[in-house]
Amino acid sequence: MRIVIDLQGAQSTGSRHRGIGRYSLSLAQSMARQAGIHEILLALNGRFPDAVDDFRAAFKGLIDPTNIKVWYPAAQSGSGARAPGEVRADEMLYEAFLASLAPDAVHVSSLFEGLGDATVTSIGRFAPCPRQSHCTTSSR
Hints:
The chain is an alpha/beta fold and 140 residues long.
């Protein structure tokens, strides 16, 4: 089974060093340690470059470095809240990125990120998940 773990909840500026960030990182590391025959991929947001480097170190020896996948949201119009069109474009890019990884399951550590930063938390809103029963969707 190919399991993609989205770690934006541990990358986000507001959550990285708080509860959700520590929980997300710890859970992902535990999943990687217990993966057995399952393949673990990490999905990281390239708009948080310091966190990407930290996670490469945190997962050294736990997963193949090539299984750390970084995607980049579209350019943003400054800091703070994004325009609705920018959010939708980023959600589409993010979902296309996830689909390109051909996951059997996707774990998103926090759907409550992205207010005022580059985090994107859309799952199954635009692109159907490969196996719908393994996707988490948020109602909007």
